[in-house]
Write a structure and sequence with these properties.
With about 180 residues, the protein is mainly beta. It is built from three helices and ten strands. An eight-stranded mixed sheet has the order 3-2-1-10-4-7-8-9.
């Protein structure tokens, strides 16, 4: 059921807020880039501004399915697999592939989020949330990614902002 029409990601709070029809319906902890905010290709930063979900990848795959090059490897993440490949940037469960909507800021040229392969994706449960550690993407717990994937339509707007929790979010009691 696609009930979310805007995802607001606060880099300061390391939190994703899901909105539908003007109401905050969801709050999830995330992990954004260790290198902070930035749009340039090769920066390892999380791009700011208004984006959209350009593609949803991984429907029907098992929880913690390992994705490489946006395809399932046939593997499911485990501690043993992690030990075998300790340097992998684990992209698990599902992918929401973002495309910038602001030419010159996060779209086209050296600042193109889509060509930078900026995703919202699952990550090993051993990775902390609420701490910037990614290579530019927005990481979520696998169970959170699975639930979010079902609630977000293609072309859903995604705003990534450095601002801390907006006042409207602080005033609501939501999950």
């Amino acid at each position: 059921m696609s009930d979310l029409d805007l995802l607001y990601i606060s880099l300061a709070d390391q939190t994703l807020y899901g909105l539908g029809a003007g109401q905050v319906l969801l709050r999830l902890p995330v992990s954004t880039a260790l290198n902070g905010a930035g749009e340039r290709n090769g920066s390892g930063c999380t791009p700011r501004g208004l984006h959209q979900v350009r593609a949803k990848i991984g429907a029907g795959l098992p929880l913690a399915a390992v994705l490489r090059g946006r395809r399932w490897t046939g593997e499911v993440w485990s501690a043993q697999l992690h030990q075998q490949f300790p340097d992998r940037d684990w992209i698990l469960t599902r992918i929401l592939w973002l495309s910038g909507l602001e030419p010159g800021r996060n779209r086209l040229g050296e600042v193109d989020s889509f060509r930078r392969y900026i995703y919202l994706h699952g990550t090993p449960d051993t990775e902390p949330m609420g701490t910037p550690l990614s290579h530019g993407c927005v990481r979520l717990r696998n169970t959170d990614m699975l639930a979010l994937f079902e609630r977000v339509p293609v072309h859903c707007r995604v705003r990534i902002d450095e601002a801390p929790c907006p006042q409207w979010a602080a005033d609501h009691d939501f999950q």
